[in-house]
Amino acid sequence: xxxxxxxxxxxxxxxxxxxxxxxxxxxxxxxxxxxxxxxxxxxxxxxxxxxxxxxxxxxxxxxxxxxxxxxxxxxxxxxxxxxxxxxxxxxxxxxxxxxxxxxxxxxxxxxxxxxxxxxxxxxxxxxxxxxxxxxxxxxxxxxxxxxxxxxxxxxxxxxxxxxxxxxxxxxxxxxxxxxxxxxxxxxxxxxxxxxxxxxxxxxxxxxxxxxxxxxxxxxxxx
Length: 222
What we know:
- The protein is α/β, with parallel strands linked by helices.
- The chain folds into 2 domains: 2-122, Rossmann fold (3-Layer(aba) Sandwich); 127-216, Winged helix-like DNA-binding domain superfamily/Winged helix DNA-binding domain (Arc Repressor Mutant, subunit A), CATH 1.10.10.
- Helices cover 42% and strands 22% of the residues.
């Protein structure tokens, strides 16, 4: 199991990396908001341990970025902020659990196992459109049974479309799915990802709704 630790305290980060490693968990450590967002774009993790007080901003921005891209990776908030309003805010933003510092490593590992169990029971095993199948838990895409290699941005574009199968998804919604925000990239970037997906998955699968966005066509007659 590989997780992402987002924590700016060097002593606590070192201790958590050592303790989790002894518990059989591989850890990548991000120390600020920018590093965390970059890691979440380029890698797939089984879970995220997320501190709220970070350089460059709040850990909540990392969580909102993750959920805005329709990424259901379990997130366990670890923070010294113990006010009820802050716990509610974190959970409402999409966190799976909340652990207040200081805590024992055994409790952290138990909470981590619990969110992973809940996640494995709730995540959709596969999304299908014609002969294309997307498995969110494995970040795997196949066409006619053969695996298709997609970039991270192509994958998240496809995921956003397949989660709304048959419905039109706007350019702004696709930007949020890929980048966590809209209006921050060149106007033709989404169109480039759509072109790449059509090239890899076949024409006729993704339909352009002029002036509105794009949609996955469930069958040839749709």
